[in-house]
Amino acid sequence: MNHNSNDPIIERLDLAHTKYSKATEEKLKEIMKSAKPLQPNQVDIMHLTLKKSENGDLVSTVLIRNGTQRILHFQSLPLCITEKVSGMVVAKGTFSLKNLTVQPFTSKPATFVFPASSLYMEPIDLSSCRVTYPDSPSN
């Protein structure tokens, strides 16, 4: 698929090799429909969910959005959890990945676990936090 204009990108959702329920798949499709369109050559990490596990780890699901004409290959991905208002970093980590690939003009969900030991502050109001790529502009 080629995209040569300055029109926003229409992406497809890649759920291959995932184990989401049909309800979750439908919810992801709805999120995609309402998401701000990517611009040509834009790559974006979209925060979807952030939950605390029983052992205190923070479990985050994001949508990796590829608005480029090339396949993106990730071997590692630095992410941080920040408070939306203050911008204060709550946790950060670099995640080693086994060849996470995102096809051109495609979005792919991915889940990352921030160990409790990586948290910089407690308690945390998860509703006021988001997951971002370090040094990315506000979402």
TrEMBL record:
UniProt protein name: SLAP domain-containing protein
